[in-house]
Amino acid sequence: MKKKLGLLYGGKSAEHEVSLSTAKAVIQALHFDQYDVFPIFITRDGEWRRGAKLTAPVETISELQFETGLKEARPNDISSFLLEENEKPFDVIFPLLHGTNGEDGTVQGLLEALNLPYVGNGVLASAAGMDKVVMKQLFEIAGLKQVPYVYFVRKEWQKNQEALIAKMEENLTWPVFVKPANLGSSVGISKAANREELVNAIELALKYDRKVVVETGIVAREVEMGVLGNDEPKVSVPGEIKPVTEFYDYDSKYNDDKTDLLIPAPVSEGVITTMSDMAIRAFKILDCSGLVRADFFVNAQDEVYINEVNTMPGFTPVSMYPILWQNTGVAYGDLIEKLISLAIERHEEKQQLQYQ
User: Fold this and answer.
1) pLDDT by residue (tens digit) across 105-159?
2) Domain span at residue 176?
3) Are residues 205 and 243 in the same domain?
4) Helix (H) or strand (E) segment spanning residue 91
5) pTM of this prediction?
6) 303/225 Cα distance (integer angstroms)
7) Tens of pLDDT along 48-93?
8) Largest pairwise CA distance in the chain
9) Per DSSP, which regions of 46-164 are E strands?
10) Looking at the structure, do residues 8 and 65 belong to the same domain, yes or no?
């Protein structure tokens, strides 16, 4: 019997367009002989819309027809939206959401409350993986090597700007990278080489989040690994990013076809072993499940620093995570199948818990 699969995408996020690209790619790769596929679209304003069942891939997302949505929906509205009476419930939901209000634990919490199986990381891992500060603090507990950083919130910046700049100059070295704490796809990230550039970069980052992270910039290669699994995760071959821009920004990721991806990355076996160990430790300290892309810096002395993990990495066929697994022997369609199986496996394990 076919499984009922809900594809949840769009979202009230700066990464809305990235999510659309991911949804289109997944729809085109699904095995429709195994699933009854229903698109569930969230508009930029947060309105939920449910589409008719798909029986075959579509060329563009705009071709899909949606029912009237739920604007400013309350939780019980959304529950009836996802769990309509007289219908077979969803066997699994595949959240294809990137960034805030989707990748940060909010939707995961809703799906947990509805007791629906879903692909990818749970509430804790999603929330901790989205917040770069919490992530870094957990990495410190796990003993993972990182570049020096300073963080603060908007109110601190408004009240103690000079003191914070002095703290950054004392603890960091130029150039620095300034990042919104809770955003992905390199949105709002800037490089600063002096005080003036630093202030401008912080003001930009504060447009996207109330919390900012400032890191020492190091001369290093950017190398990534895919992690796949639940309690016994596996790692992919490593891949190196060679952007033509000064750093791997949003345009480099999604609009620039000149960025080179070297897969497998030309690094030593020792570096691969170190990254593999760090990727698994990062996966476990955040209590991840399903998928993670772990990002590293590797300097000329082969020292490895973990940069961050992405709990819902770009997932089109030309995104780094699927390409890493393709080069490890797992094709795009098979990767989707594996993630769905992992979601059901995790959900079935949770059903064994006692609540009385």
Assistant:
1) 999 999 999 999 999 999 999 999 999 999 999 999 999 999 999 999 999 999 9
2) 148-216
3) no
4) none
5) 0.90
6) 16
7) 888 889 989 888 887 677 765 655 555 556 777 777 667 788 999 9
8) 64
9) 48-50, 92-96, 149-153
10) yes
